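hi! just following up on the protien thing from before. the input was this:
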Amino acid sequence: MKIVLGIIMMIVGIAMVVKTETVLKIFGRMAFFEKHLGTEGGSRLGYKMIGLVVFFLGLITATGMVGGFMNWLLGPIFDAGSGSHSISS
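and the predicted 3d structure came back as:
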């Protein structure tokens, strides 16, 4: 089931990147993207970035790497209070 969900997410991500104009027509412009990513193409670039993130999340879901990725991403945060790191001077 994870493989199917991952493949669907990858297809949606690719579609968002390739068909950005259609996504823009469906969802409209986003003020945050327009303000921070440019004046005319900010929303288009924002939708492409969201599509890339969705594709990447679909890839790690399909390959079963979600746990490993989350451990890598959040490991330093949760490991900070454990005192397992030694500091040598």
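Helices lie at 2-18, 20-27, 31-37, 42-62, 66-79.
Residues 42-62 form the longest helix (21 residues).
cheers
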